[in-house]
Write a structure and sequence with these properties.
The structure holds 2 protein chains of 2 kinds.
Chain A lengths: L2 H13 L18 H28 L4 H21 L4 H26 L6 H17 L3 H21 L6 H14 L8 H27 L14 H22 L3 H17 L4 H15 L3 H20 L5 H26 L6
Helix pairs in contact in A: 2-4, 3-4, 5-6, 6-8, 7-8, 7-9, 7-11, 8-11, 8-12, 9-10, 9-11, 11-12
Chain B lengths: L8 H14 L7 H8 L5 H30 L6 H22 L4 H25 L5 H18 L3 H21 L9 H26 L7 H25 L4 H22 L3 H23 L4 H34 L1
Classes of the chains: A mainly alpha, B mainly alpha.
């Protein structure tokens, strides 16, 4: 943000009685151009790769057991947290720390798997790993590291759900967490800095999960995680409820009339059910709508990219025939076009060129 | 300066989070601060957004559904039906470009679609009639057909697409005839051809951008071109070092010439920090390659340790230099 805009923003806050005094001096932590930071980041990763090759070589040569992997992993994570605390503005060291932390988490997971002697789903193991990610998330002071820990923790929780036969709950839960965090930002009175990276992580998870879940869940009979305890309809209804809840929250903020509110809530619910075989489109729509509600351009772009990628992926997915997919898309498209025409007339605007 | 000016919402939000972290803004005041700094869209903006989103997404889904439907029935379509379908869409795109003009957003999108559909048409033609043509001929013909559009559309995207088709055609040609330059191995030949074609393209691009064609000054396009030369020439040198071939000398000379030209031009004539950062990264990659090959697996620990030290050292030196260059450029621009 440039000096003028910072001053304007501070003045607005001052006039509202939220702050007093002169604007604080600018923090030049992010003054380094992006390209330089990217170059340093790549170099940090390269250095970490060789360093970790050295650590891995020493570990395997010593014939260590599961506990050793666990301890080494914990030490690597501790080293990473130390680097973050002691050199928060050094791009090379922060990327080195990130790579060390990733390796540490891998060592811990490997140690745990070796100890449990299980390569397939284990609910407690995944929950334990999720708890480790949450601990790292809380202790870390770096945005990227926190975002990664939130993303990894989300993944482990979803794996735990899948292991317990509750996979259809995963996508709606992530969607609800993302929408709840973003839309609830204006009501929270604490933990803004802590939870900020989690929003990005949940958005990525929401965008990526439909690519993974479609195969795993529709083909549930051959799933590595065993039988589903909940029907697939649970995911579809869950997503529909999340979209309806978002519509409710936004219309509430705008002070919309009850008729309008219930119309939009019902429309959101119905659209999600029509698109039930293409959950990725509903997920992308959630990201786009929440992104617009909070003026988050990044989420808008992510949602649009996820939508386009999902359509490409949807074409090649083998679980449904092209005819079924064609029907789903056309039905959903017609519903949207009709809704769009109704809204377009109600705005009274001239048609776009 | 007035308090009615509204800073960019995303930047304002980031600034607020920074002030909360530094303790200048109490977390309890955050909700009011967020509403003040980034009030969000009003009812009218929502109606417009939802209307546009519904119409455009609906149209996209219907179009995708139609494509899926035709794909489902593709094998059942007659030859004439397949050709008619593809060519109809191509003609519609061309007609839309002509109607709206290549300066309008819809016209530009239609022209890009038409350029891509030329390739689809040629592919369908080749599939139906089994002409026996080599793959390189498809790309060469595709590039030839869209040449007038690429050079008159004033769209860097289209020109880069054209260059990409040219590269692909040449690579496929050389893959089919690897002995055309008998003294050069196939992988090296492909990389040298990329360096030559893209290098020439970059020289022309920079010359025309400075003097004649302002639409070529888009920095992202120039940077893509620079990468299309820098990556193959660096890969060529790394490969030569790794394979311990007699071609190390020409590759090294080529790389040094490229680095000298790139550093001089993008430091003093057309300053671009992105290119300079890429050059620093290339130096690191080459240095690491030399270390890995010449110390070798016999002294594994020494190799790994010295590699880490070299990477950290070169990165720190490179970053210091780049920050100094950035500061000088900022000073000049003021």
């Amino acid at each position: 943000m440039n000096v003028h805009d910072r001053a304007v923003l501070w003045q607005q806050l001052d006039e509202a009685g939220l702050v007093t005094g002169e604007p604080p001096p600018p923090n030049n932590r992010h003054g380094t151009p992006f390209y330089v930071r990217a170059m340093l980041g790549i170099a940090g990763w390269m250095a970490a790769a060789f360093m970790l090759a050295l650590v891995g070589l020493l570990t395997f040569m010593s014939g260590s057991g599961a506990i050793s992997f666990f301890v080494i992993g914990a030490l690597l994570c501790a080293a990473a947290l130390f680097l973050y605390k002691s050199a928060p503005a050094n791009d090379l060291l922060t990327q080195l720390a990130f790579a060390l932390s990733l390796a540490g988490q891998a060592f811990v997971a490997f140690g745990l798997l070796s100890w449990l002697e299980s390569e397939t789903g284990n609910v407690l193991m995944f929950l334990f790993l999720a708890a480790i990610e949450m601990l790292l998330f809380t202790l870390s002071s770096n945005y990227l590291h926190r975002a990664w820990c939130a993303l990894a923790g989300t993944g482990f929780v979803c794996l735990a759900l899948a292991s317990a036969g509750l996979a259809p709950l995963a996508l709606p839960c992530v969607a609800a967490a993302f929408a709840g965090l973003c839309l609830g930002e204006r009501r929270r009175r604490r933990w803004h800095v802590l939870l900020n990276p989690a929003m990005g992580a949940f958005a990525f998870a929401l965008a990526a999960m439909p690519f993974i879940l479609l195969s795993a869940m529709v083909d549930a009979g051959n799933s590595e995680f065993g039988e589903l305890l909940l029907p697939l309809q649970t995911q579809r209804i869950g997503l529909a409820l999340v979209l309806a809840a978002i519509a409710w929250q936004i219309t509430n903020e705008l002070g919309a009339r009850p008729t309008t509110r219930w119309t939009l809530v019902t429309a959101g619910f119905a659209l999600a059910l029509v698109m039930q075989d293409a959950s990725g489109i509903t997920a992308a729509l959630i990201i786009i709508v929440v992104g617009f509600a909070r003026s988050r351009t990044f989420f808008l772009s992510l949602g649009i990219a996820a939508l386009l990628l999902y359509l490409s992926h949807f074409y090649y997915a083998l679980e449904l025939t092209l005819l079924t997919k064609s029907g789903t898309l056309i039905a959903g498209g017609i519903v949207l076009v009709l809704a769009g025409l109704v809204l377009h007339r109600s705005t009274g605007a001239a048609p776009d060129a | 300066m007035t308090s009615t000016d509204v800073p960019n919402s995303a930047a304002a939000r980031t600034q607020l989070l920074e002030w909360i972290e530094e303790g200048h803004l109490a977390p309890a005041q955050a909700p009011e601060a967020f509403i003040l700094a980034a009030p969000g869209p009003d009812t009218g903006a929502w109606r417009q957004f939802l209307s546009r989103l519904s119409l455009s997404l609906g149209a996209l889904l219907i179009a995708a559904g139609v494509i899926f439907f035709f794909a489902y029935n593709w094998s059942g379509l007659e030859r004439l039906g397949k050709l008619t379908l593809v060519q109809s869409v191509l003609l519609i795109s061309v007609a839309l470009t002509w109607w709206k003009g290549a300066d309008a957003p819809i016209g530009r999108a239609a022209l890009i679609a038409a350029s891509l559909l030329v390739g689809a048409t040629l592919a369908v033609f080749g599939q139906i009639y089994q002409t026996g043509a080599d793959p390189w001929q498809l790309f060469a013909l595709w590039a030839a057909i869209i040449t007038p559009w690429a050079f008159t559309s004033r769209m860097p995207w289209l020109l880069l697409l054209w260059l990409g088709l040219l590269d692909t055609g040449v690579i496929l040609y050389l893959e089919a005839r690897p002995n055309v330059f008998g003294f050069v191995s196939e992988p090296e030949l492909l990389l040298w051809s990329l360096v030559a074609i893209n290098g020439l393209a970059l020289i022309f691009w920079e010359s025309l951008a400075s003097n004649l064609l302002p639409w070529l000054r888009a920095s992202w396009a120039r940077r893509l071109l620079v990468l299309s030369v820098g990556i193959p020439i660096t890969a060529l040198l790394v490969q030569s070092i790794a394979m311990d071939q007699s071609s190390v000398l020409p590759a090294a000379i080529g790389w040094l010439v490229w680095m000298s030209a790139s550093l001089t031009h993008y430091r003093y004539l057309r300053p671009d920090l992105f290119v300079l950062a890429a050059d620093v990264l290339a130096v690191i990659v080459v240095a690491v390659s030399i270390l890995l090959i010449h110390i070798g697996p016999a002294e594994l620990f020494g190799m790994l340790t010295s590699t880490v030290i070299v990477i950290v050292g070169l990165s720190a030196m490179g970053a210091t230099w780049l920050r100094r260059v950035a500061a000088e450029l900022d000073e000049v621009s003021r």
